[in-house]
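Before relying on records like the one below, remember that each one covers exactly one chain. Contacts with other chains, cofactors or solvent are not represented anywhere in the record.
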Amino acid sequence: MVENSIVIDSIKDIRDKKIQFAIKRFFDFILSLIGIIILSPVLLIVFIAIKLDSKGPALFKQIRVGKDEKEFKIYKFRTMIVNAEKKRELELDPENLDKFVFQSKSDNRITKVGAFLRKTSLDELPQLFNVLIGNMSLVGPRPEIPDVVKFYPESYKQRLKVVPGITGLAQVSGRGEIELGKTIGYDLTYIKNFSVLYDLKILVKTFVAVFKHDGAF
């Protein structure tokens, strides 16, 4: 579990940094728009590759929980077979929530193209549209699924006080392979230390992690 002192400081820091969060939103809009334009050929190629590789839509849509516990629809490139969520139950123990790890290295639902997309993080590119809309940011805590959030203790819910991101401190510290309890700790540390410059540092670390394929599966 996370330290109470971190939670309290994080709430205060959110109130004290309204201007920085406004600047953050401005850059999110500009950079996501530029990214969509520049990466449009890549988006098209990935779209076609997914359609040729397996049956089903190229885009995967899922309900996630964002800022102030408001639900929204997240966009990703599909990396699994159709109806993958119905083929495996979420292995979640509410009594040991801090030990929960969302992703698995051995998942037979992942397609061939999907494995490549996950390894290179190209599956996350459609979330640039989420950033453009405003229900996500380039940097922030990853948006959680409702089935996990409903078991959140109050200390965990503090990560829901900011807009979720495509990448974050937790992701550059382990990506999909760290436990939820540690992820929450990283998220609250991010909120506590947030600044536009801090976001820039995390973005740079993200590009390095993606290039090295650290924690990607």
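The chain has a mean pLDDT of 86.
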